[in-house]
Design brief:
single chain; mainly alpha; about 70% helix; globular
């Protein structure tokens, strides 16, 4: 349902002014007579909460192998490097040596996997993750995202339960299983974006989307220490059984409570339903079978999102998959310390990302900054400052305190990008937001495939010098992404994203 003159506060009559048009709640009330319903306990906030816990489960399923790998691998399989003892000998923060701390209960198998094999296994998830992003976004935009988001989590959870069996069969079987998990999980983020295109009023986009997406950092924060605790006490197979069970339970609750859009939700109030529908307008309708593929292909703002997300994800996935290994082989934290300290950056990343969404919406509500300015500033903070701190990690040497501090600060400021480039798809093309996220996430997954492999080769000798180069590379890539988005990014809706109704209205205005 469009507003007067055929457009909602999601767009303006003049595309040239769409970036600076006031986005005020009173606009909705003035044009529609629908008062803005309270946010607390609303259906849209309940949806954000369900997504938050869903992505917490998703990232628990994704990162469990990173910590479990320390316990799964026999620490004697690699030739000890003289660099380990000479560069970073065990210090006062180490309660046991790394191999002792990774010991497992009797009867739990361990494997002779070298660094390259470990890197391939940690990156296997992303091989499958690459292939379902775009189809998931397209189908979610056409049919609605609840089935794809819930089904993606459920499928990944079921496969996770089979991890101990596949590891027992061999590294190739585990690689294939992790790739299948990625294949199932690839639809989740595009489905989320497609759902918010129908559920999130423009003035609430940043806070709703950053809160729901922040579940990923929260999931990593909870999963990493919990994985270490379970590994230490019950053995590494129990990690995959518990994570898989949690995913299955969440999926059941999701299918019982969630609907694709406000029109079909059985428990939403009329006030909230009409507020959402009228504030989003025609951009909240399915995009149909045809999409402007060529226009997307040559869209500079879309490529700005793609390049910046790839650069940001290089650092993120490097830490996500390899940080526990760094904590173990260089800083010599034991398994429980390792898992807790590896989780610390994600705690602050979670808090900062949620705060960035609230701050971004406040700046737009008060008309302090335009959408473009908000997205560029938050992206710059979220990519450039983390690069500075990653650079500092490389200079921290063997100091566990400095390394953990700089890594935590890097992840904390990285949370700002959640209200920047990572929700920019819904600014430039709300109607195709699900498919655009599928496209950007497909490219953004490439670092997930390459980063663990590159880290494996750069750290063959498990030395502090090799890891210094890892952090410096990540810093350079992240800084480049920040600069690229500043130059080419925008918050304006693109002409190819407008509906036929909006285009016809513009011709007559």
């Amino acid at each position: 349902m469009a507003l007067q003159h055929g457009y909602s506060i999601n767009s303006s009559a003049d595309d040239q002014d769409s970036d600076t048009a006031p986005l005020l709640e009173r606009e909705v009330e003035k044009n529609t007579g629908v008062t803005v319903p309270p946010k607390c306990c609303s259906v849209r906030c309940n949806l954000a909460t369900m997504m938050f816990f869903g992505f917490a489960v998703v990232y628990g399923l994704r990162v469990n192998l990173s910590v479990a790998m320390v316990a799964m691998v026999n620490g004697t399989n690699d030739q000890p490097s003289s660099n380990i003892s000479n560069e970073c000998p065990g210090s006062s923060h180490t309660l046991d040596n790394s191999s002792q701390s990774s010991g497992q209960p009797e009867g739990i198998p361990r494997y002779q996997w070298n660094s390259e094999t470990q890197g391939m296994l940690l990156g296997a998830f992303f091989f499958g993750y690459l292939f379902t992003q775009i189809p998931g976004g397209y189908l979610s935009g056409r049919f609605g995202g609840s089935l794809f988001l819930g089904g993606g989590v459920l499928g990944t959870a079921v496969l996770t339960l089979l991890t101990p069996v596949s590891a027992q069969l061999g590294a190739k079987w585990l690689f294939a299983l992790r790739a299948l998990e990625g294949f199932g999980e690839g639809v989740t983020f595009p489905a989320m974006m497609a759902m918010w295109a129908r559920w999130a009023p423009p003035l609430e986009r940043a806070r709703l989307m950053t809160f729901s997406g922040a579940g990923s950092n929260f999931g990593a924060f909870v999963a990493l220490p919990l994985t270490g605790l379970i590994c230490h006490n019950l053995g590494w197979p129990a990690v995959f059984y518990s994570c898989g069970g949690a995913g299955c339970l969440w999926a059941v609750i999701w299918f019982l409570l969630v609907s694709d859009e406000p029109r079909t939700h059985p428990r939403i109030s009329d006030q909230e339903k009409y507020y959402i529908i009228n504030s989003i307008g025609s951009q909240g309708t399915p995009h149909g079978w045809s999409v402007p593929v060529l226009s997307m292909l040559f869209s500079v703002p879309l490529w700005a999102i793609i390049i910046s997300q790839m650069c940001s994800n290089w650092s993120y996935y490097t830490l996500l998959t390899s940080l526990p290994t760094y904590m173990d082989t260089v800083l010599h934290f034991n398994l429980q310390q390792n898992s807790i300290l590896s989780a610390l950056p994600y705690l602050f990343g979670w808090l900062f990302s949620v705060g960035s969404g609230v701050l971004a919406d406040h700046l737009l509500e008060r008309e302090i900054l335009s959408v473009t300015a908000v997205r560029k500033i938050f992206t710059f903070i979220g990519l450039f400052l983390p690069a500075v701190f990653l650079l500092a990690v490389g200079f921290s040497g063997c100091s566990g305190v400095l390394a953990v501090t700089f890594l935590t600060l890097s992840s904390a400021f990285g949370g700002f990008s959640a209200a920047g480039v990572f929700i920019n798809q819904i600014d430039i093309a709300p109607r195709y937001a699900g498919m655009l996220l599928g496209i950007t996430n497909t490219f953004g997954t490439i670092p997930g495939v390459l980063a663990p492999i590159v880290v494996g080769y750069m750290t063959k000798d498990q030395s502090a010098t090799g890891w210094k180069h890892v952090f410096w590379l990540s810093a350079g890539v992240s800084a480049f992404g920040a600069i690229f988005f500043i130059i080419f990014g925008t918050g304006k809706m693109q002409s190819w994203a407008r509906t036929d109704e909006e285009s016809e209205t513009d011709k007559h205005d």
